[in-house]
Recover the amino acids of this structure.
């Protein structure tokens, strides 16, 4: 990851501190995707200060992060809510908490974090629609060709569908993470936690076909499991995100992203009567709060199916 690109246009004070913070994040084994999102959020705050310096008396803060105040952050959050969404503003809030805590405790550039009395944005609870079997089939039907891209994309989609993994977990796989003898994969989850997950026969066949095509592709000696269609280079998480949107558009399915299969996995597991503790292990969760959140998207559907099986009111 090129930190200098993220900090393009910022003052030297902001740029140097972003580079130093990234060094700290790397030393604590934060994944590249997490580091990118952290640095992006802080750089967005710095650019907001620059662009709105006259409106919010933010000229000094635009030059030096140590001059940032509670008022500057609250204006930034309000702007994020207006131009993006409350959930996006909440994500930026959490990142800025970490940044200014580091600035105060590790770097001692400030005595107190300006985030101390900044309230986090409240976000409405939104149910993410699951990516069901019918829509998944439509998307997989766009990958029926024999080209390298078709074989690769089918394998990627089946892994999301069949294991409920996060976007970055599948994107960051290496060839060593696959065990075709046991039809399983090792994911590196949040907090650097490894977990092994089994996949079904259809996913295994899709992966096997891709691996054969991969062995003949440029860059076959690279450790990354997923390779770009052109050139000897890996396919990054953002490339997978773009691919899923493109496949969804061709299939006539809107809003296609990896996390919808994660919700589907949790829903299907609960519908089949699966244990919540086992689901937490498979999806890499440390608390059952996430299990409740992900299962909520289809809770009403599950309740209706249980109601039909119980035949309440039909016994007389």
């Amino acid at each position: 990851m090129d930190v200098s690109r993220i900090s393009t246009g910022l003052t030297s004070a902001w740029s140097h501190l972003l580079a130093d913070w990234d060094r700290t994040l790397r030393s604590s084994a934060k994944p590249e995707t997490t580091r990118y999102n952290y640095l992006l959020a802080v750089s967005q705050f710095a650019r907001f200060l620059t662009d709105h310096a006259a409106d919010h008396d933010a000229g000094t803060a635009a030059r030096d992060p140590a001059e940032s105040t509670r008022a500057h952050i609250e204006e930034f959050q309000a702007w994020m809510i207006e131009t993006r969404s409350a959930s996006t503003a909440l994500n930026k809030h959490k990142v800025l908490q970490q940044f200014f805590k580091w600035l105060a405790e590790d770097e001692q550039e400030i005595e107190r974090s300006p985030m101390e009395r900044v309230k986090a944005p409240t976000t409405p609870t939104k149910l993410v629609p699951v990516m069901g079997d019918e829509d998944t089939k439509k998307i997989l039907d766009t990958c029926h060709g024999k080209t390298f891209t078709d074989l690769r994309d089918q394998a990627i989609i089946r892994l999301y569908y069949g294991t409920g993994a996060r976007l970055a977990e599948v994107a960051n796989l290496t060839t060593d993470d696959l065990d075709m003898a046991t039809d399983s994969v090792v994911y590196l989850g949040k907090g650097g936690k490894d977990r092994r997950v089994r996949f079904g026969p259809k996913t295994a066949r899709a992966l096997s076909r891709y691996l054969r095509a991969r062995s003949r592709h440029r860059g076959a000696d690279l450790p990354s499991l997923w390779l770009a269609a052109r050139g000897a280079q890996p396919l990054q998480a953002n490339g997978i995100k773009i691919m899923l949107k493109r496949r969804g558009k061709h299939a006539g399915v809107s809003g296609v992203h990896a996390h919808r299969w994660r919700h589907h996995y949790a829903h299907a597991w609960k519908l089949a009567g699966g244990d919540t503790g086992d689901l937490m292990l498979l999806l890499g969760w440390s608390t059952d709060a996430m299990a409740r959140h992900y299962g909520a998207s289809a809770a009403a559907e599950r309740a209706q199916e249980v109601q039909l099986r119980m035949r309440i009111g039909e016994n007389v």
Summary: The mean pLDDT is 90. The two ends are 67 Å apart (CA to CA). The first strand starts at residue 178 and ends at 179.
